[in-house]
Amino acid sequence: MSIHLYDSATREIRAFKPLITGAVSIYLCGATVQAPPHIGHVRSGINFDILRRWLTHSGYDVTFIRNVTDIDDKILQNALKEKMPWWALALKYERAFTQAYKELNVLPPTYEPRATGHITQMVELIEKLISRGKAYAPGNGDVYLDVHSLDEYLTISKQKLADLLVSPDGDQSFKKNPQDFALWKSAKPGEPSWPTPWGAGRPGWHIECSAMAHAYLGEVFDIHGGGLDLVFPHHENEIAQSNAAGYPFAKLWMHNAWVTTAGEKMSKSLGNSLRVNELLTKVRGIELRWYLGSAQYRSMLEYSPEALDESAAGFRRVENFLKRATEIIGQNPELKISKDFAAAMDNDLAVPEGLAIIAELVRSGNAAITSNDKKTLTENAANVRGALSILGCDPFDDNWVIDQSNELTEIVDGLVKLALAEREAARIRQDWQSADRIRDAISAVGISIEDTSSGPRWTITRGEDR
Q1: For residue range 237-279, what is the model confidence (pLDDT) as tens digits?
Q2: What is the mean pLDDT of the chain?
Q3: Start and end of every Cysteinyl-tRNA synthetase class Ia DALR domain (predicted)?
Q4: Structural domains of the chain ordered from first start
C-alpha cells in the first residue's frame, strides 16, 4: 500500500505522489517567537516530525523547511512589555523553541530560515505581484494584495469573499477593497524597518512564508503543513499571493488539530497555556512526546493532568517491556516495522491504530517472556522498537539516553541498590515484614520496584530504569 494523506484543500485522503520520484519537499510554518513554547505550539512540530520519519523510512529523501517568524506585531508588543529590544526577545524565544524541540526529540529541519534574513526575497516577490497587476502601492508606504484581481481565493477554507470581515492589517483608507491584506507595512516611529522602493517598512506576515518557501523549495513543492488555526487567513493568503505571482505552490496541504483544555484551543489569552519546560518537571521528555503524538494529527487532543499521567504510565509499560526483553535477548532489539503498523501509518498517519498494534505486541511479548519463547520475544521487541522509532519515542535513541557519568545519578543508583540489597537479604531469611518495610520506604520517595527473573529492577516515577 502506498502512503495516503489527507489534503485539506480537496478534503479527501488520497495517494501521495511526490513531484520527484524518491524525494519529498515539505514546508512547515514554524514558531512566531514571541513567548515561551507551550504544548499547543510543539504538537505541530511532533506531528510533522512523525510524518518526516515515516517518509524517510519509506525510502524518500526529505527536504524539510521549518521557518522562524522573528518579526511580527506580537513580537514588538511583547518586547515593549519585557523592556528589551525586539530582536533580543525574538532570539530569546527562538532558543526556547529550539530547546523544546530538542527535549522532545524533534529532528532539526533541513533548513530553518528566519523571516528577517529574507527581506530581499520578499521585496522581489512583491515587485512581481505589482508588475502583474495583482498588488498595489497606494503611496503611503504600504503595499496590498488586490484580492478582487485574483483568479481564485479561499481555496482551502471554502469561504466566500463577500462574507469576509475587513482585513485588520494596514490603513483602511488606502485600500481598494476592505479584504485586501498587507504585503508590506510602512514604518512607524520606534519600529524596525527595511528600505524598499515604496519606503521604509516591514513585511506582512503572509508574504514571509511565501518568499521563504519559494527560496528553498522552488515554485512548486510537495507538502505545506501547519496548525489548523493557520488555514485562514495565513495559508489562504500564502496561496493567493504565490498563485498571483505565477507559482503553483504546494501540491498538498496538511493541518494538525489543536491541543485543547476544557474544550477550548490553548492560547495565552485564555490563560490556559501549558509551557513545555513546566511539564518537563512532571514527566520525562519521551513521555510528553508520547502523549502529544498519541492522537491522530487531525484530531483534537484534550489535555488534562490525569490524561498526561495515564499516558506516561502507559508508555513506561512499553518501555519496561523493551528493557526486560533486552536483558533476556542479551542486546538491544533490532529496528523492524510490522506490516500492520506500516499499514496504519500509510493510512494518513493513523497513530492510534499504531498504538493499539504496539500494545498487542507488548502483551504477546510479555506472554513470550512467561513461556520462555525467545523467538517471539525477539521479533515482538524488534517491531515495538521500530514503531517507537517512527513515533520518536525509541528509548534506545541517543537523544533519550541519560549520561551515566552524572555524579548525582551514580549516587542515587548506589543508594537504591544498597536498599535493594538489604531488602533481598530480608527476603532470603524470610523476614517478610522487613522486606515489605524497605519496599514501602523506597516507594514513598517515588521509586517503584519490579521483581524479575534476573533480579529486582527499580524505576523512578519520571525517570529511567536502572
Answers
A1: 999 999 999 999 999 999 999 999 877 777 766 566 799 999 9
A2: 92
A3: 340-401
A4: 4-265 (3.40.50.620), 304-400 (1.20.120.640), 407-460 (no CATH)
